[in-house]
UniProtKB/TrEMBL annotation:
GO terms for cellular component: cytosol. Coiled coil: none annotated. Keywords: Lipid metabolism. Pfam families: Patatin (PF01734). Residues 51-101 form the PNPLA domain. InterPro entries: Acyl_Trfase/lysoPLipase (IPR016035), PNPLA_dom (IPR002641), Trp_repressor/repl_initiator (IPR010921), WH-like_DNA-bd_sf (IPR036388). It comes from the Bacteria. GO terms for biological process: glycerophospholipid catabolic process. PROSITE patterns: PROKAR_LIPOPROTEIN. The keyword Zinc-finger does not apply. GO terms for molecular function: phospholipase A2 activity; sequence-specific DNA binding. The keyword Cytoplasm does not apply. This is PNPLA domain-containing protein. The lineage of its organism: Bacteria, Pseudomonadati, Nitrospirota, Nitrospiria, Nitrospirales.
Amino acid sequence: MRLHILVIGICFIGSGCGMQPLPGEISKDRYFEEGVEARKRSKGEAPELGLALAGGGIKAADFSIGVLQGLIEAGVMERVDAVSTVSGGGYAALWYFSRLLNPAEYERNSLDVVDYHKFARMFFADCIPIKYKDLNYVNPLWHKIADPTSGICPKNMTNFAPDDPEQKAFNSDPVRYQNHLRGYQDIFAWNWRRPFHYEETTSDQGRRNVKIEFTGSFALTALSSIVNFVPNVLFDWEVPVSSSRNQYRAGILRAFGATPTNCEQTGGCVFSTRPVGSEAFVRDDLTFKLLRQEYEKGIIPLWIINATAGENRDLFSAIAHPGQKPLQLTSFEFSPYGSGSGLFQYSRQSLDDLRPWEAVTVSAAFLDAQQKVYPVWWNIGMNVTTLNWGRSHRNPHVQWVETILHKALPAPLYLFHRRSGDSAGDFVNIRLSDGGQSEDLGAYALIHRKLPDIIVSDHSSDRSGRMDDVCRLKNGLAKDRGDDPHLYVYFPGLSNLDEVCIKDSNLGYDIFNWEHPIVLGCVTSDRDNYDCVRKQPMEQDHFQHIYLIKPSFPGSESRHHLARTLLSATRECGSRKGKDNCADAVSSAPRFSWTHHWGILSPSLMEVFMAKSKTERGRFSSRKKMEVVLRVLRGDDLDVVSREAGITAATVSEWRDQFVASGQAGLKSRAAEGRDDELVRLKALVGDLTMRLELSREAVQRLRGGVPLATGRSTR
């Protein structure tokens, strides 16, 4: 009774305990429209193309950087209007925007558009690790033709060869950006032990320094747990005292935010160590204000960083309602135009003025007591041991007196006070954690912005093929949530996706055996539009194309074999001898048309079917046999050709011998009808010239439109 009187008295002094208005509050619809008019002014058209980089830690980051490289080299990235990231995808975006906007790394005038040819040469230049040289994984000659800095790496770990006359291409440290990424993959390493190394994690067990480091980390965590007891266990002050959290944040920034050390200019690079880079720009100068300025100039896409906020954390909900809330409520985003979520509403102000790098580390806080994937006792253990990496902010919707009262409540009383609910004023704090705990693809922010086309880079659940993140989005959008309409996610090429997405289903897709890594799908308000055909607005209010990129390994039979066609274009256009064939190579390289009508496409272009195993692919047609044989006769490596074709080298050799023998027999039995032969030759010549004319015309049109023909692609 006395407690109730005390609360009433405090509320009276504090002018009431009602929900406070949000500073800078803006309606949800208006928030998602922010930046559209600025984009129209700078680029002449409304935003159309979005890119979602999904979560998944370091693995997702590396995959996303590869996707960024591919989109840049294909001429697609310059058309991207918005980039939405979660967790590891945010690492990749932090790396991308830090390179692009740091004038010390990428020089340009303030109004200059990005020269993506230059960007690719500077930041994606790489070499082939020397351990691959004799394994026939790659053909070094192709990379030397495409990019003079490619080829086999120097023997040292830094890929820097200052005094080696045989490695002149590496005298100026040209591949330092990719080398830095590769060497600083261990984000939990401590700076004192020179964290730059190429050792696999399975090799760490026998290394003395690593054992010392593990012991030190354990000791610091134990010490943090002692300090943590009063503020975060006995009371709910949510003071960030976790040493492992600080170590995690520092590792992300060191690997993906820092400017790599230029060994040519600074020295200090020994055989196996590249010094830690500078973090000054990403910590101090990379702000949401800068991102907004550059976006409104039309220089960069809009960067949206997604976290999770608002999962119930009270004792009753942990027992009675342990599952996740709808993603429409808990998906919390930061952007150059503010921050917010469906639960906590939207504001033109960024929550507590967080910087992009801080938002990225929050978006990646996968260890946090807010999680709903594992049982509730995991959350208790995380809180006690300080493996609680999220970040808490005072809820601006709540009166300060409520905050004071909550901080005064000891355990277990605070577990029943303002830690759960379905409205903005139900929580005393806004707890931010890994965005994957709400929507791991990063697609939700782009769907709400109604961009017609969305590319999704998703590597998650690839071992089992469960499509967990796709299913979370699909099931979440289909549920009715307030004023959000029912939306349906379809992928015509993924048979029985509804059954796969059933909870506890054991079904999945053989992703690594797909013929093509891109799956075409859609988000639509039409429940019956299973084929993803764009209809009139009166028939469906909402429709977006989805291009889902998965880490499959395309077979050589695929008509859309990206690696083969891009490599061909690189080789032909990068060498002097191949200039005449450049137009042919470019015309056969894959293209992306983001505004086409799918209704006129054949099913083979709309769907990606489950590929048969290589032993079940049946007989090769004579045309395919000839393609394989001609590659070998042109000088391509026999093992590489056979591996890409999915057949043995002996079979390729047999086909080659048969081809040569039949050619010799044909020469011996050739009829002496010179006139007929000449007519056949002339017809073939006319056909060839006609084809080349069309290809050349297309190439000229692309050049006039400012679209690059091709750029060199290096191997990471």
